[in-house]
Amino acid sequence: xxxxxxxxxxxxxxxxxxxxxxxxxxxxxxxxxxxxxxxxxxxxxxxxxxxxxxxxxxxxxxxxxxxxxxxxxxxxxxxxxxxxxxxxxxxxxxxxxxxxxxxxxxxxxxxxxxxxxxxxxxxxxxxxxxxxxxxxxxxxxxxxxxxxxxxxxxxxxxxxxxxxxxxxxxxxxxxxxxxxxxxxxxxxxxxxxxxxxxxxxxxxxxxxxxxxxxxxxxxxxxxxxxxxxxxxxxxxxxxxxxxxxxxxxxxxxxxxxxxxxxxxxxxxxxxxxxxxxxxxxxxxxxxxxxxxxxxxxxxxxxxxxxxxxxxxxxxxxxxxxxxxxxxxxxxxxxxxxxxxxxxxxxxxxxxxxxxxxxxxxxxxxxxxxxxxxxxxxxxxxxxxxxxxxxxxxxxxxxxxxxxxxxxxxxxxxxxxxxxxxxxxxxxxxxx
Length: 431
Prior knowledge:
By secondary structure, this protein is α+β, with helices and mostly antiparallel strands. It has helices at 10-20, 50-60, 70-74, 77-83, 97-100, 102-111, 125-134, 160-172, 240-260, 293-297, 305-313, 354-358, 394-405, 421-429; strands at residues 2-7, 26-31, 41-42, 64-67, 88-89, 119-122, 141-145, 154-157, 183-187, 193-201, 205-213, 216-218, 222-225, 230-233, 266-276, 279-286, 330-337, 363-367, 370-373, 376-379, 383-391.
């Protein structure tokens, strides 16, 4: 079975490694990274180069393509591949607006009765500031850039001054470019956050697992938002009753609503949840696997992932169940970031110690922003690596992850030292 994976981050490395473990499977990844190159063939085609990707698929006739990041989905790679007869896992461009436009997602949830925060969509800074001044959504208040902003386009403003400053930054100074031409302003929900993942085939959905991530750059959830500084799985808060409720009240209406609107949803769906006193509500949807959540969810799955994804692409998940991994297994992933992240970073910095970390039983290292310069492995972006510990308990998984982290070094490297601690707190609160 010949597979193509599109993407270059830690999520794609986790996908490639999981797919490649199945006997009889060969994996090509574009554009990949230095770590992915050890597990699959890598070709230098950018994720957003739809014409080149389509030509590659025409030449090589892959049995299945799996899309990792959101950009090619927003550019219509699934529509292009399907039109040319190529089997691919991922939503169409129209369905991908669940992530690629926050305004679309909120309107869709309103149409289909999916629980979420109250909101207003604003097309100008003046309109946004008027909504904030009226106080109809209260304080603190959440401001989201409408378009794609690499997971960083959300500001939680404690007061009106912070909210007005965020509007200026997003809509006038365009910190996130065109993503900030329109904003969604929401009431601020309270409660613990959980990430829930399913695989859809257009008509049905199968749960893949849950996780909790750590968005803030510094310990104790301080500092600016990032693309994710670490994660653990599964979430102790996601018990069988809650999972059934989320499938019934959120996932089912998404799949059914998309189909009713003429855009059958195929592929991964990430449901970002806030567990409020009124029940689970949607913070956001992603139309692909999360990163770094994929790095902790995928190692726990006991399944033939190529066959499952092929079934989803064919609209035939009926005969495929998703089995959990070894009973009691959990995973904790720590992201190692370049100095300055989530701001500007220096690249080309040599990395040491990955092999030593990977030799520790129970530890895996997934590459994100890495590259080869001659014989050296070097940094190539902000989030460089995810070090994952897998064990029967969270205490042991945390210890393993940080034992792996201790083996790795590069100039400017920084990481959070509290990844996974919420798991034990959540478990205590949930018992």
